Amino acid sequence: MSLSLLVTGGAGYIGTHTLVELIAAGFRPVVFDNLSNSSRQSLDRVARITGVAVPFVEGDLRTPGAVAAVLAAWARAGDPIQAVLHLAGCKAVGESVADPLKYYDNNVIGTQHLLHAMRDHGIKRLVFSSSATVYGVPQHLPLREDHPMVPNNPYGRTKAMVEDMLADLCAADPEFGAVTLRYFNPIGAHASGLIGENPADTPNNLFPYITQVAVGRRAKLSVFGDDYDTVDGTGVRDYLHVTDLARGHVAAANYVHAQPGFTAINLGTGQGTSVLELIAAFESSTGVAIPWLGSPRRAGDVAASFADSTKAQALLGWSAERSVADMCRDGWHWQQGNPQGYDTVATPRAREDVAVAAI
Ligand code: WQD
Fold first, then answer.
1. For 178-189, what is each residue's pLDDT tens digit?
2. HSE of 295 in the Cβ direction (CA atoms, 13 Å)?
3. What average pLDDT score do residues 61-73 get?
């Protein structure tokens, strides 16, 4: 389907992997990103993988008129944007507790500017990057989309607020279509090793911390809590390969093109993996030992969270295909070739057995 799509946050971790799959599916993405948590080099790597130099506009959704100018430019050029994949936003739970206004400005007000610009240009299709954090403390597992939304941190509340905005828009305008994708825990990297997770500071999340220990940037991993009511006392999460997540966005873009109304969909594997199980999987997939030490629980963490992913299969025909071992192998391949992320001086060679564009 050769539709032009605007991808906000398209230079980021999820964004770059989604660009690769969108291009493979025949879409023509345009990236709007303020590069606050991403790197321009990531788009050069997307070009190496796909052979496509994705148009990129540096800008901030919080700046009134900034994203509207992009939509106007593409309309003037006779190639109007047909839909938006809205991935731009702040995503660190701990930071949202310390600086909630930053999160409401970026994630809520920024989205409001985007929605106004879409309305002014007659764009009525949107895929939104949401999060399982909207569920708060699970009342039952696996988590289904009809689980109450009781987020317990500002980050989760911003995601729930945007979902409510989209639901209200769809209720007011029967021609408006919005799919909100509730991510569980995306990890890993594109099989080529050319793009991957690139945290700006000390990683908040488990997997990038593990790969930074593996590559020697961190001495050892702290395991937050060993007394949860789980298989081994450590936190259980639903990790999914970022390429599977990206393909979920393509399926959602196809779905929302044909289907107006508001639809919430979990993107997860339905499997839970504990912290110690992920460490063991990484060590056996890569042969690299991960030294760790037991630490107190992290405030705000839940014991276990994993998805009921039957709705994604039923509506999108999507289900996760890659294993935890695949996630570990691919994530390590990225980190090994890019010890300092995109700031690594030597440009890595793509893995021989993975086809990338010859440019
Ligand atoms: C996973 C497990 C930790 C780090 C968060 C957001 C969520 C989404 C993904 C945006 C937990 C443990 C972690 C470490 C550890 N982000 N851990 N040592 O908290 O499930 O989800 O990131 O959408 O919205 O809430 O992911 O990777 O931070 O933690 O032991 O150094 O690993 O306690 O059990 P989380 P995480």
1. 999 999 999 999
2. 12
3. 97
